[in-house]
Design a protein that fits this description.
Elements (H helix, E strand, L loop, with lengths): L2 H19 L14 H8 L6 E2 L3 E6 L2 E6 L2 E7 L2 E6 H9 L4 H13 L13 E7 L2 E7 L10 E2 H4 L5 H16 L11 E5 L5 E5 L19 H19 L6
Antiparallel strand pairs: 1-2, 2-3, 3-7, 4-5, 6-7, 8-9, 9-10
Helix pairs in contact: 6-7
Length: 247
């Protein structure tokens, strides 16, 4: 057995052990098909418009529908890729088997704390529809002034709008002052253009909130450590995509 194969086997065994420690028991490795309720929801959707690490996204009228992927690709060893069943992976990482329910729960908790001045800077999850062990997440589409769908910061690239970064500063301050340990990444932010030259950030993903996001980093349970990480991630965001104008 070569080194790469040994590493893959070791990784799989370690991960399986952690799952059983978390209490994983009766979940089948075979996912059941979507029920009629969710099939009807997706029936008017065409091809998916995008795919992230956890979901495949469809566009239906003014809503985006996220359907959980069956597997999470975690590591790649040359031609070999290690994939974990999504439910098991989410159980280990977030403590819940359904990523859509986890996202919705975090959104509802955060929504209660958002100040009026920032409510327009957070996307809106409308609902999560379930049937058996399957679910789809429904979210309002974030649109620009011209009616086109807003793109993520990672797709848009550097932003020269001073108003955009002022809002980012306000969001960071809100998180830190209210102990919202949101570990932000550029793909979590939509860039909504409100005119040809001005834009604003809209947070569109809510799963990376709290120390449970990084189960292998228990020190993030401490507020001081979690805040340091939040600050580092915002600083990294500004450094990579920011374009500060001198006052």
């Amino acid at each position: 057995m070569d080194r790469a194969t040994k590493e893959v086997s070791s990784t799989i065994l370690s991960f399986a052990s952690l799952l059983f420690q978390q209490g994983a028991s009766s979940r089948s490795w075979v996912r059941f098909p979507l029920g009629p309720l969710m099939k009807k929801t997706l029936s008017s959707a065409k091809k998916p418009i995008g795919e992230g690490s956890y979901r495949r996204v469809f566009e239906i009228d003014d809503r985006l529908v996220g359907k959980e992927l069956k597997h999470r690709r975690v590591k790649k060893y040359g031609p070999l890729t290690v994939r974990y069943p999504m439910g098991w992976y989410c159980l280990f990482k977030f403590g819940i088997r359904d990523i859509n329910l986890h996202d919705f729960k975090k959104y509802q908790e955060l929504k209660k704390k958002i100040p009026d001045a920032l409510k327009g800077n957070f996307g809106e999850i409308v609902d999560v529809k379930q049937r058996g062990k399957e679910s789809v997440l429904l979210m309002k589409k974030v649109k620009n002034y011209d009616g086109k769908m807003s793109k993520s910061l990672i797709e848009t690239g550097s932003i020269a709008s001073r108003a955009f970064w002022e809002k980012i500063d306000q969001i960071e301050k809100f998180f830190l002052e209210n102990d919202v340990h949101y570990f932000i990444y550029p793909q979590d932010i939509a860039v909504r253009w409100i005119s040809e030259k001005e834009c604003e950030p809209v947070i569109i993903d809510f799963k990376r909130i709290g120390a449970r996001t990084y189960p292998a980093q228990p020190h993030l349970v401490l507020k001081s450590q979690a805040k340091k990480r939040v600050k580092r991630l915002f600083a990294r965001l500004k450094e990579k995509y920011g374009f500060r104008q001198k006052p």
